[in-house]
Automatic annotation (TrEMBL):
InterPro entries assigned: HTH_HxlR, WH-like_DNA-bd_sf, WH_DNA-bd_sf
GO molecular function: DNA binding
Domain HTH hxlR-type: 19-118
TM annotation in the entry: none
SUPFAM superfamilies per UniProt: Winged helix' DNA-binding domain (SSF46785)
A Pfam match: HxlR
Keyword terms of this UniProt record: DNA-binding, Transcription, Transcription regulation
Record's signal peptide: none
Gene3D superfamilies: Winged helix-like DNA-binding domain superfamily/Winged helix DNA-binding domain
Protein name per its UniProtKB record: DNA-binding HxlR family transcriptional regulator
Amino acid sequence: MRKENSTNAINEKFLFQVCELNSAIAMIGGRWKSQIVYSVSQGNNRFHLLKKELPNISEQVLSRQLKELEIHAVIVRKEIPGTVPAGIKYVLTNKGQDLVPILESLCDWVKTYAEGKEISVCPMS
């Protein structure tokens, strides 16, 4: 947990006040969040399915990224009725569903302007 009066916290507050885009980037920033959102949108809505779709992510990181997406109301956890132990699935909120085409557009943008890096496949487009 970051101290409220730390330089990082002060700078973050300033940037969020200057432009809402900084807040949006913080919300979906992180190495795996965009892939998680896209994977959930494609039906990989259980922890083990996400882990299978993103094999290089550790379970700890996946869990943390899911919690952060939940905090920002991009996804919600829902219990699957009739499962023992209780099964959990992840569902995109309206906010999360609205994010998918933005991520797809961003992926297209990156393909065009990737600064000479060869990008062959972007799973979002």
